[in-house]
Amino acid sequence: MLEQTVSGGVTINDCIWRFGQESQPFGGVGAYHGEWGFRAFSKEKPVFLQAPVNGIGLLHPPYGKTFERMVRLLRAIT
Predict the structure, then answer these.
(1) Is there a contact between 20 and 14 (Cβ–Cβ < 8 Å)?
(2) Cα separation values, 75 from 1, 18, 61, Å
(3) What HEC string does the chain produce?
(4) Where are the domains of the chain?
């Protein structure tokens, strides 16, 4: 019978326990409970926050002694 129905979830031999299950989606045919609801109604937007102190300056000229030391170190370990 379960294969012939369209539903978001099914409770067998009970009527209330399904609503208290936070680990399962709830909301009819759509999953709008907990993480499922958050994902359904959210638009994912990656955000990159560059740290105030970073090594990106080492990649752009003029190269200094710190860059030269890093290159020597990387060459030594590869």
Answers:
(1) no
(2) 66, 60, 19
(3) CHHHCCCCCCCCCCCCHHHHCCCCCCCCCCCCCCHHHHHHCCCCCCCCCCCCCCCHHHHCCCCCHHHHHHHHHHHHHC
(4) 2-41
**Distance between CA 36 and CA 73 in Å, rounded?**
47
User: pLDDT tens-digit profile of 3-22?
Assistant: 787 766 777 777 776 666 76
The number of beta carbons lying within 10 Å of the beta carbon of residue 25 is: 19
**Cα 58 from Cα 60, distance rounded (Å):** 6
The model's pLDDT over 48-74, given as tens digits with 9 standing for 90+, comes to 777 777 777 767 788 788 888 888 999
Residue located via tokens 């030269």:
68
